[in-house]
Design a protein that fits this description.
The protein has one helix at 2-20; strands spanning 27-33, 43-52, 58-68, 71-73, 81-84, 87-96, 101-110, 121-126, 133-136. With 137 residues, the chain is mainly beta. A hairpin with a 6-residue loop joins strand 8 (121-126) and strand 9.
Length: 137
């Protein structure tokens, strides 16, 4: 029994050490609106591409996209959206395989006039057991 527990501990330690060495710079994020300019009330798509360029799987990737609060999102109730005045945070947690590229599209509309910028995203990667995280914007 003690050998079994010791083996479990050693395997967990090796997995933990290997997952800490995930290069955050090799995770690429890109947000592209389908149109550069739209009329008031016109629908368009926000296309998000998340690419793991490393040869390792990443057990925990947390992406928080910062959107203008005026955005009306189709299928809003199925997404993890958090109001954060004057922005809207779209949060996603995923597992990424090696060299995996994830593409997502959401249909949006803005009823107000003005210039709206789709600013940034925050990314966090973590180890397999959840002890450590690294972040980039």
């Amino acid at each position: 029994m003690i050998w079994f527990l010791f083996t479990i501990f050693v395997v967990a330690f090796v997995v933990e050490r290997a997952s800490i060495k995930i290069p955050l710079e090799q995770i690429k994020y890109k947000l592209e609106p389908s149109k550069r300019s739209v009329e008031q009330g016109e629908e368009f798509q926000l296309n998000t591409i998340l690419h793991n360029a490393s040869s390792r799987s990443i057990p925990y990737v947390f992406v928080e996209e910062v959107l203008p609060e005026e955005v009306e999102i189709e299928g809003r109730e199925t997404l993890n959206l958090v109001p954060d005045n004057p922005f809207l945070l779209h949060r996603t947690t995923i597992f990424m395989g090696k060299h995996q590229k994830i593409k997502r599209s959401i249909r949006v509309c803005i009823q107000e006039r003005g210039l709206f910028r789709f600013r940034q995203a925050r990314m966090k990667v973590g180890d397999a057991l959840g002890f450590r995280q690294r972040e980039k914007e």
